[in-house]
Amino acid sequence: MLIALGLINWRYQAAESSGTKNSLIIISLGALLVALLFLPMTQKAFSNRMVKALTWVAVSGAVLFAILN
Predict the structure, then answer these.
(1) What distance lies between CA 20 and its chain's CA centroid?
(2) What is the rounded (10 degree) CA torsion for 64, 3, 38, 62?
């Protein structure tokens, strides 16, 4: 979701000087989460309730960042 949202954000903020930077922040967070979820040693960490909550907060923050920028 974050990768798609970042690409959409990039398209709509093409004229802005900071549009590329803001979109790459969102895209990189999404790509990092996808990579971490596919690595066997980090999959176990995502079964922890605290890690799930922190991930939810980070993703929600990235979505709000995309909407407000």
Answers:
(1) 14
(2) -10
How far is residue 49's CA from residue 38's CA, in Å, rounded to a whole number? 18
pTM: 0.81
**Three-class SS string for the chain?**
CHHHHHHHHHHHCCCCCCHHHHHHHHHHHHHHHHHHHHCHHHHCHHHCHHHHHHHHHHHHHHHHHHHHC
CA distance linking residue 62 with residue 24, whole number of Å: 11
Would you say how long the chain is, in residues?
69
Per-residue pLDDT of the chain (69 residues; tens, 9 = 90+): 889 988 888 888 877 777 888 889 999 999 999 999 899 888 888 888 999 999 999 999 999 988 887
